[in-house]
Write a structure and sequence with these properties.
475 residues, 21 strands, 32% helix, Homing_endonucl, alpha+beta, six-stranded antiparallel β-sheet, Endonuclease I-creI, DOD-type homing endonuclease domain-containing protein
């Protein structure tokens, strides 16, 4: 086997995910990874001390098995394996381990031209792929070569350093982005950052959307937008700068013209809790934050039905009426988050005759937490305070969250409300339109590029936005 080229390790380390670089370049040793596959999974075999980090880099759906890591056989994970093959020596049965070369446009093109040679960096992966998967591999590597050939240093599209970016482990500041850092793409899955470009001070604007979500960016920042007319004509979305959007923000009837994609439910890298436990947590917190006894009684009855335990009324005095949701509960797996939402909604949610879905609570913190929970599941949520809805002697008003969810996320478990919701859900898909743009001031900014095919990532309030500009280049 060929040995690692020590002179090139620093160049590679600067272009890799921290979670991978941490163990690819230890001071003395370099781990070896062997790749094979079964009918449904890819299998990466490596030393035990590297399995956890290896699985974390490839994604939360990977799992350890003996001396290996099992990875689902999906297009998304093939792309992750491409990154892994570029980053470290990956072998298969022929035992070939190519020398490392710093990533560049020419080196990536050369690697593709060498396929299916045993000495190609992607050779081990390529030889285990079928015809369709080989096309994915070649297209993806050439796409990365195109992206690396673009000089984006002069382009201004950027967000402030204090903007938030969603990652598989929660939110991170834009200032903390590094090449290789995994962020959440528009499809809800992780995608690696492929470039970080500081921009210095820029004029920054706050963009506010129809559900109250907002984000800050400069006027050259790019957005993937569509209009009602274009959607009706089955036309694809367009990528426009904020300045272009601002020049044409409303239509002739003064309605917001531009909408952006709504993120699919986010896949987080977090420990699971049982769906039953998350449902019961939702019941208790909905009851505790409701100012009326009717909701508390409903929560107690449902808790007993679903737990086979006798409910103790003293629990209401132990829970704050201004509770929110535990911070960790917002990053649990999708099924558990849906169960948590169903527990909340079975107590304090309702479906209007129009099909509109609402959650009512006496706690502002809970209304904000439910908004975050819904948005993490690919929905839209707008929180307001209403002094006339559900008016009683026990309260002077309620915090109302208007909710819209994709059809595959059912917010209730109670059959009657499920049926009413399902009948209307096909007409009520989540939509986010740009409602206002306000000047904020000057802030230090930067932009990033991501590996996702649509070039989209998720920022503040689960807003889907575009990465730095990329120009087409003929091959």
């Amino acid at each position: 086997m060929m040995k690692h080229n020590e002179q090139s390790s620093d160049a590679w380390a600067s272009a890799l995910p921290a979670s991978l670089a941490d163990f690819i370049w230890p001071k003395e040793t370099l781990p070896e990874v062997s790749l094979s596959r079964t009918e449904d999974h890819w299998v990466l075999e490596t030393s035990v001390e590297h399995q956890v980090r290896l699985g974390r880099f490839v994604g939360s759906e990977a799992r350890a098995l003996g001396a290996g890591v099992l990875i689902p056989n999906t297009d998304h994970h093939i792309k992750q394996l491409i990154w892994l093959s570029a980053a470290m020596p990956v072998t298969c049965s022929d035992g070939i381990m190519p020398e490392f070369l710093p990533p560049s446009v020419e080196s990536l093109r050369k690697e593709v031209s060498m396929l299916p040679s045993r000495y190609c960096k992607f050779g081990a992966l390529f030889r285990l792929c079928d015809g369709r998967e080989r096309s994915i591999l070649i297209d993806y590597v050439l796409q990365e070569a195109r992206h690396m050939s673009v000089d984006v240093s002069a382009q201004g599209n950027a967000q402030p350093l204090d903007a938030k970016v969603l990652t598989p482990r929660g939110w991170m500041a834009m200032s903390d982005m590094r090449i290789g850092q995994l962020v959440i793409g528009s499809n809800g899955f992780p995608t690696p950052v492929t470039g970080v470009f500081p921009k210095g001070p820029r004029d920054v604007y706050r963009v506010t959307f129809s559900d109250g979500a907002s984000v800050e960016c400069c006027d050259e920042h790019l957005w993937d937008v569509n209009t009602p007319y274009r959607r009706a004509a089955n036309k694809v979305s367009r990528v426009l700068s904020l300045k272009q959007v601002m020049d044409n923000l409303f239509d002739n009837a003064n309605n917001p013209r531009h909408s952006i994609p709504v993120m699919a439910a986010a896949h987080f890298d977090a420990k699971d809790i049982s769906e039953g436990s998350s449902y019961q947590l939702g019941l208790l917190l909905a009851g505790a934050t409701s100012p009326g006894m009717a909701a508390k009684n409903e929560a107690a009855n449902l808790f007993e039905q679903h737990s086979n335990l006798t409910f103790q009324s003293a629990i209401w005095s132990a829970l704050s009426p201004d509770s929110g949701l535990p911070r960790d509960s917002l990053c649990i797996p999708i099924k558990s988050r849906v169960s948590l939402l169903q527990g909340l909604m079975d107590v304090a949610g309702l479906v209007e005759d129009t099909g509109a879905v609402e959650f009512a609570t006496g706690s502002k913190r809970m209304s904000e937490a439910v908004s975050t929970l819904v948005r993490s599941l690919g929905g839209t949520a707008k929180a307001t305070f209403n002094r006339t809805r559900f008016l009683s002697s026990e309260t002077d008003g309620h915090h109302i969250v208007n909710i819209c969810l994709p059809r595959d996320i059912v917010p209730f478990s109670e059959p009657e409300r499920c049926e009413r919701w399902a009948a209307a859900a096909r007409y009520n898909e989540p939509v986010r339109t740009m409602e206002s743009v306000e000047y904020v001031g000057t802030k230090r900014c930067q932009c990033i590029s991501v590996a996702a095919a649509d070039h989209l990532y998720v920022t503040d309030d689960f807003i889907v936005t575009h990465n730095t500009a990329r120009k087409s280049e003929p091959f």
